[in-house]
Amino acid sequence: MKRGEGVEEILDDFPALHSRELLEGAMAFVQAHQQEVDAYLAEGALRWEEARKLNPPELVEKVRRYRAERGLKSA
To answer: 30 with 1: CB under 8 angstroms?
Structure first.
């Protein structure tokens, strides 16, 4: 939505969204609660960055290889 995409473009990009009505409802909710949604997304981005710092890419890749070698699935 922030990129200016409409319902049709979003549905094309996300075929798993089967309901135009649900997408339109979600979009209306976001537009009506823009500040709260922005704050929620900012908090999520901050947490993601903190987690990324705790788990450097080299470590994550090492864990992925270890799991793949042993046929283990991610938690």
So the answer is: yes
Distances (CA, A) of 61 to 18, 51, 57, 67, 72: 34, 15, 6, 10, 14
d(CA 18, CA 71): 33
CA angle 14, 5, 8 (to 5 degrees): 55
Between the two ends of the chain, the Cα-to-Cα distance in Å is 31
Other beta carbons within 10 Å of 41 = 11
**pLDDT tens digits for 10-29?**
999 988 888 999 999 999 99
